[in-house]
């Protein structure tokens, strides 16, 4: 283990590894502060379950447009750099909202202001996620490709550790600290991340988006650019001729101003062309049936199943009287279930066709919802099974099965990315997954509102869960969109 870490350190450097681990740890540790947000919406703002779910759905929308951040950072370098400036911007966007929410009672006492600040915070977190992924891809390509899997393992491990720590400490903090204090405490991590950005050196990039073009296309575009905009050399020639003829400084000044205007127009034109090229390349790749059909299935699988997680949070805290510390423990168990699901898939299910594994995953998801129905009906009490046992078991099983469903998504996404635009297209795949989750949350909020489920009124909760079970099998009807013979080790 120590020898492995030394190899990674020698390959990528301590500063880079520290930044990667810190960003992923912070992503996982977000559970520390978002638990407080849930209680802020429920107890202080006294929002209904559907209203709270609506706030969460809007706040997490920035995760659904991740390719936009990748394209912008690829196409528009700042100071000759494509990564670290955007990492600084994203970190500031992650830091400032929590700082304001912790210091200003007005911002956290209004559901509108709170939703806006949470959305801005997620914008920063999502952008940082895209940028650090790009930095990892570039570091692996430049340094040692043999360490690609190791670097990804380190990042996922850091996020898992962050998630476990955040869940454990989040529940404890809610029982012992004010919510505004929790917001302020969390700012320590983004502040540390901001300082760490200065430790990482980035290679300057003077040309936008070379990775989306092959070498021939890039040289052709560079030559075309020089042929189209030869004003720099001509202006210098004119200036030298003017000096030989003893022309006045005013004429030279006018020429310089004209040159600067042309240069700014040229830069804007090049940036626009790069953005256009990236967008067209992305659309061309995504419209291919082998890419479009599987991604359409994963999107359908999210939007057809209403997400009632926020409603269940209200039920667990109000009816079952479960405290924040226990719910934090349940999330830790969920993280352990997620890691167990990853191990089971990699160890036993890679040879199973993706269609079959996704079918079993949805059957498993319906079982977890049935467990929630047992909990809501209070049937578990009659059999001597405590509510806490049901919640812990359901959390572990639900996260494990969701990971079994997510692993085929990762496998297909990695295989379907054509060379040259892997990073941006993979970000698009993840955005489709996130957008589907957001739409599913909106559907859940609408279902809860339609059934009249609100704080203190959970009579139709059982009906809502029954509808959710039925909807779980709708995506099964569209499994024909997944390649028939594709497995975890080969694809057709």
UniProtKB/TrEMBL annotation:
<keyword id="KW-0812">Transmembrane</keyword>
<dbReference type="InterPro" id="IPR036259">
    <property type="entry name" value="MFS_trans_sf"/>
</dbReference>
<dbReference type="Pfam" id="PF03092">
    <property type="entry name" value="BT1"/>
</dbReference>
<dbReference type="GO" id="GO:0016020">
    <property type="term" value="C:membrane"/>
</dbReference>
<feature type="transmembrane region" description="Helical">
    <location>
        <begin position="84"/>
        <end position="100"/>
    </location>
</feature>
<feature type="transmembrane region" description="Helical">
    <location>
        <begin position="112"/>
        <end position="132"/>
    </location>
</feature>
<dbReference type="InterPro" id="IPR039309">
    <property type="entry name" value="BT1"/>
</dbReference>
<feature type="transmembrane region" description="Helical">
    <location>
        <begin position="358"/>
        <end position="379"/>
    </location>
</feature>
<keyword id="KW-0813">Transport</keyword>
<feature type="transmembrane region" description="Helical">
    <location>
        <begin position="296"/>
        <end position="315"/>
    </location>
</feature>
<feature type="region of interest" description="Disordered">
    <location>
        <begin position="226"/>
        <end position="262"/>
    </location>
</feature>
<feature type="compositionally biased region" description="Basic residues">
    <location>
        <begin position="235"/>
        <end position="248"/>
    </location>
</feature>
<feature type="transmembrane region" description="Helical">
    <location>
        <begin position="12"/>
        <end position="34"/>
    </location>
</feature>
<feature type="transmembrane region" description="Helical">
    <location>
        <begin position="327"/>
        <end position="346"/>
    </location>
</feature>
<feature type="transmembrane region" description="Helical">
    <location>
        <begin position="153"/>
        <end position="175"/>
    </location>
</feature>
<dbReference type="InterPro" id="IPR004324">
    <property type="entry name" value="FBT"/>
</dbReference>
<keyword id="KW-1133">Transmembrane helix</keyword>
<feature type="transmembrane region" description="Helical">
    <location>
        <begin position="462"/>
        <end position="482"/>
    </location>
</feature>
<protein>
    <recommendedName>
        <fullName>Folate-biopterin transporter 4</fullName>
    </recommendedName>
</protein>
<feature type="transmembrane region" description="Helical">
    <location>
        <begin position="424"/>
        <end position="450"/>
    </location>
</feature>
<comment type="similarity">
    <text>Belongs to the major facilitator superfamily. Folate-biopterin transporter (TC 2.A.71) family.</text>
</comment>
<feature type="transmembrane region" description="Helical">
    <location>
        <begin position="391"/>
        <end position="412"/>
    </location>
</feature>
<keyword id="KW-0472">Membrane</keyword>
């Amino acid at each position: 283990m120590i020898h492995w870490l030394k190899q990674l350190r020698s390959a990528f450097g301590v500063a880079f590894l520290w930044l990667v681990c810190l960003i992923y740890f912070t992503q996982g540790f977000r559970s520390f502060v978002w638990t407080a947000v849930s209680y802020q919406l429920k107890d202080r703002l006294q929002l209904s379950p559907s209203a709270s779910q609506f706030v969460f759905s809007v706040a997490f929308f920035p995760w659904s447009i991740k390719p936009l951040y990748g394209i912008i950072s690829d196409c528009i370098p700042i100071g000759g750099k494509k990564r670290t400036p955007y990492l600084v911007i994203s970190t500031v966007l992650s830091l400032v909202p929590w700082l304001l929410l912790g210091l200003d009672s007005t911002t956290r006492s209004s559901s509108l202001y709170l939703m806006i600040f949470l959305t801005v915070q997620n914008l920063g977190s999502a952008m940082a996620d895209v940028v650090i992924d790009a930095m990892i891809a570039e570091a692996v390509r430049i340094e040692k490709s043999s360490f690609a899997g190791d670097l990804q393992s380190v990042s996922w491990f850091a996020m898992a550790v962050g998630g476990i720590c955040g869940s454990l400490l989040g529940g404890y903090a809610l029982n012992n600290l004010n919510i505004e204090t929790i917001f302020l405490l969390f700012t320590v991590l983004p502040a540390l991340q901001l300082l760490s950005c200065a430790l990482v050196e980035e290679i300057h990039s003077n040309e936008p988006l070379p990775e989306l073009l092959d070498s021939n296309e890039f040289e052709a575009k560079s030559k075309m650019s020089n042929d189209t905009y030869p004003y720099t050399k001509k202006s210098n020639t004119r200036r030298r001729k003017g000096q030989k003829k003893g022309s006045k400084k005013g004429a030279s000044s006018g020429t310089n101003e004209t040159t600067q205007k042309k240069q700014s127009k040229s830069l804007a034109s090049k940036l626009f062309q790069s953005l256009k090229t990236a967008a067209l390349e992305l659309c061309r790749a995504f419209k291919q049936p082998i890419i479009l059909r599987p991604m359409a299935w994963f999107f359908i699988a999210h939007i057809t199943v209403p997400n009632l997680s926020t409603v269940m949070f209200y039920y667990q805290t109000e009816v079952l009287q479960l405290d924040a510390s226990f719910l934090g423990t349940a999330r830790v168990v969920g993280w352990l279930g997620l890691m167990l699901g990853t191990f089971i898939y990699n160890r036993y299910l890679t040879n199973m066709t993706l269609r079959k594994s996704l079918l079993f995953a949805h059957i498993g998801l319906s079982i977890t919802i049935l467990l929630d129905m047992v909990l809501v009906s209070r049937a578990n009490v009659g059999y001597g099974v405590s509510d806490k046992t049901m919640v812990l078991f359901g959390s572990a099983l639900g996260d494990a099965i969701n990971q079994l469903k997510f692993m085929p998504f990762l496998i297909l996404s990695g295989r379907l990315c054509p060379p040259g635009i892997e990073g941006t297209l993979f970000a698009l795949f993840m955005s489709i997954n996130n957008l589907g989750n957001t739409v599913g949350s909106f559907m859940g909020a609408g279902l809860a509102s339609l059934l009249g489920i609100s704080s203190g009124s959970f009579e139709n909760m059982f009906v809502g869960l029954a509808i959710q079970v039925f909807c779980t099998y709708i995506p099964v009807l569209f499994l024909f969109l997944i390649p028939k013979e594709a497995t975890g080790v080969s694809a057709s």
